[in-house]
Write a structure and sequence with these properties.
The chain is mostly beta strands. The chain is built from one helix and five strands, in the order ββαβββ. The chain has one domain. Strands 2-1-5-4-3 form a five-stranded antiparallel sheet, covered by helices on one side. The longest helix has 12 residues. The model has no long low-confidence stretch (mean pLDDT about 90).
């Protein structure tokens, strides 16, 4: 089982000062479970949109989607990505006594 995070990066519809990437979810599981969680987040994440009137989810790769949210006055774009942990300096070594 691998450790995964789902990231959301704002791309459009907001000022540059509000474009920080956020971790939406952390999980431990298979690649299939992580991909399911990515799509689940795409269907529930609202970002900074006050009232979502339309949600469009575009598959970009197997591990990322482009999410376009239309609110009352504006449209916002987010890139949601799935990242797998490949290294952790705090993890115990497999050869440690």
């Amino acid at each position: 089982m691998s450790r995964w995070i789902v990231l959301a990066t704002p791309l459009s519809g907001m000022p540059d000062t509000a474009r920080d990437t956020k971790v939406l979810r952390e999980l431990t599981g298979t690649a299939e479970e992580a991909a399911h969680t990515l799509l689940e987040q795409a269907h529930t994440f609202d970002g900074r949109v006050w009232k979502v009137s339309r949600r469009e989810v575009f598959r970009h790769t197997d591990r990322s989607v482009y999410l376009r949210l239309t609110g009352r006055f504006s449209t916002f774009g987010y890139l949601l990505q799935l990242a797998e942990l490949v290294s952790d300096s705090a993890a115990p070594s497999a050869t440690a006594p």
